[in-house]
Amino acid sequence: MTQARNSKRLIEGQHLLGIESLSAQEIVTLLDLGERYVEVSRQIDKRQAVLSGRTQINLFFEASTRTQSSFELAGKRLGADVLNMAVSTSAISKGETVLDTAMTLNAMHPDILVIRHPSSGAAELLAQKVSCAVINAGDGQHEHPTQALLDALTIRRRKNRIEGLVVAICGDVLHSRVARSNIHLLNKLGARVRLVAPSTLLPTGAQNFGVEVHRNMREGLDGADVVMMLRLQLERMSGAFVPSVREYYRFYGLDEEKLKLAKPDALVMHPGPMNRGVEIDSNVADGVQSVIREQVEMGVAVRMAVLDALARNLPGGGNA
Amino acid sequence: MMAPSAKHSSGRKAYLNARLIDPAQGLDGKGGLLIEDGWILAAGPKVTAQSAGAGTTIFDCKGQLLVPGLIDMRVFTGEPGNEYRETLATASEAAAAGGITTMIVMPNTNPVIDDAAIVDFILRRARDTAIVRVAPMAALTKGLGGEFMTEIGTLQEAGAVAVTDGNKAVANARIFRRALAYAKDFDMLVVQHAEEPTLATGVMNASETAGRLGLAGTLAVSEVIMVERDLRLVESTGARYHVAQISCRQSVEVIRAAKARGLPVTCGVSVNHLVLNENDIGAYRTFFKLSPPLRSEDDRRALVEGVQDGTIDVIVSSHDPQSADTKRLPFAEAEFGAIGLETLFSASLSLHHNDGVPLPRLIDALSAKPAQILGLEAGRLAPGAPADFTLADIQHSWTVEDHILRSRSKNSPFEHRTLEGRVLETVVAGRTVYAYDLPR
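^ inputs. structure came back:
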């Protein structure tokens, strides 16, 4: 135990439902705190006391290995009691709604509820009905705020800044909560965001999101500082958003040749899990420009930062 | 049409000193209304205490508005099948409080109103339990399955006023054409829910807002192409065709052009689409999840213009009761629909107060036009018409709260909103079915 509780308020809200509602200052504060937790996570004794006595429930309505284990580790390193609840889709089909489940858990007095759900707005709905802090770990196609924070921390550590960088977000933007959260965050911190995707994988009105939109990947990558690849949701291929994986890879897959159009020191990122040979070439994914594994490390650190910041806003605050 | 004789009020009554608006007769001015045994004897400036004669019960309207009772052409109830959401009785209580004297109920029930026996069931239940008039539209296809035409002639004889698949579009062009041709022989009105189902797969308007919220959108074009397709079929069959509700600017333009070409087409709009827009969805508020979806402010303005110039014939509530189990869900999983019987008139008045739509046109769209389209004898204050009318104070403000709403379901998009204008009294067949106590 190396750190006592701190009651200094860092962010305004009770919950973290999205990046959209955070200010630039709050984002920077979370990144700074994340930076500290990177160091903590590299120590031999990683345990902190800021969440001791607190109960954190990870409520996952969608399967997720990396996000759930990242939140679990983050909570445990901060001293919380962490309970993982994977709610199978069969429980939902039995008629129990997301609110029923949440109300049941709420009665067990958790302090923090981490929720992932396949429907946009589910975290918001939950936050209206429970008394604890809610962290959105991904809701449908809406937001995935901790992913955007960990991406930003990764970029900032490598490039020493975010402002002014050209960031190309490529692939299935339409179905991506990662893209939406990153657009909000990067815009708030002054980066220049490009979206690179075929028209069928772009949301309506994307050109009004404060971004440049490119249908041609070569143009979209030209001079980019960061290339952020998105997972092509193969399970959505039945909707025929693109004609084939083969054609998709040809025009929108990141290979060494297309990557050459970006700046020589451009970072290659991917939120995972990757489809090698679909949206990204294996050599690129494992190449020198790739920071994909670093993203995973930053994930634990920013989630510790978010848990810490929200715990300070809980009743009883930091010195309970 | 059912209004039980037991509910007819006997004796002669005069409602004097009112502002009368009766679009069917072009009446707009001071006057009175004389009724007897559930029927109208006279209406207009010549109805006075003297002309009413001895033995007449006199009511002083104190200058308030008196209009033909409203006719709501699009009402979903839960009877039969989902009575916990709404019965004909509870819907009729809400209707009465909203100044509605005739509800046209949709066939989307369980069982579906696709058989003369179910039409008869609705009419009998209405006679026994409802306090306003009720008439059903029957299904256009059996079981709302979109495949086999119902017995349109028999349904009409049983009392169905039109055929429609309610909130489901008849997507198959061959089936729809055949139904139009057949309905034409009976001069039966065919009502369509215009949404091309292979395109209308979203949960809100396809727009920047949907993109930001991460919700699947439905483009306005999914409605427009269905309307345009149907109009071609109407042109080739000559059947009377009514679009239940339109939601976007392009549909207004398409209908306007079709009317100019002389096609037998009419259309409606829900008051929700006239007063609200997609931004009201805010943080995933499911009471604003409607089908067709709320669209942009530009679309809303075009719809208001459509009402104003008569391109859009009628305004409906599209009352669709949903309970917590279907609405307290993430937006994409929640059901479509909003209740609206009790707020139809008050919300519609905002078109008069804020958008400059003349009151007579508004009353026309809420009463005279639906009667004309459906061939009902109500919807006017003419001698010999049923004594169905509504008294209202168009200035009186009230706030919509779920505990004061009479509907069994509370999914009102106007919850917590203050509306200007309020129904004071509703009379069906000469009998007062609703009276509001003005706070002093």
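Residues 317 and 340 of chain B are 5 Å apart (CA to CA). The first strand of chain B starts at residue 12 and ends at 22.
thumbs up if we can close this ticket
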